[in-house]
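Supplementary Methods S3. Complex input for the zinc ion-bound model.
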Amino acid sequence: MPWSRAICSACKAELIYGPGKRTSSSGGEIPCPYLSLPFAELRAGHDQIYFGPWRKVEATQPDIRRAYNQIGRHLSAIGDILAGKELPSARCDLAKAREAYLSADPREDSPGLLLLLDNALSYAHRAIDDLLHESGLTPHHPMDFASWYDAPEVPFQEDL
Ligand SMILES: [Zn+2]
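Predicted complex, serialized as structure tokens:
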């Protein structure tokens, strides 16, 4: 089976499928690496951005604009999940993510834009981990899913 790229029908992430990704336990169907995990859509939404082309050295302006839009949708998705839940730490991190996001202007080719977007995504990841922690679950590790993305290298580190 050749390597190919497709939108997963379960988690909506754009994933890379290749040899070894089709398992017998999935009945020959293409498996979703997130499907059995709690908050699968938030994890997939995060990783889709985390491994996106905007973080690569050769990123283009459209890549960055697309990432900006994806981050906006991702923050909304996290907000929807947090709505009505008593999770102060997750809310606080989501607020920080929104603050960074709202400071970013994708129309400007400013040197700070990538940093603001990276901060927004890092705080979004924290909010997801807060949510997982409050639910008694272990943190989400994007690198566990790296083989599903076109991501040989990730130049930014999450070192907030
Ligand atoms: Zn999936």
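Residues 8, 10-11, 13, 32, 34, 44 surround zinc ion (CB under 6 Å). The mean pLDDT is 86.
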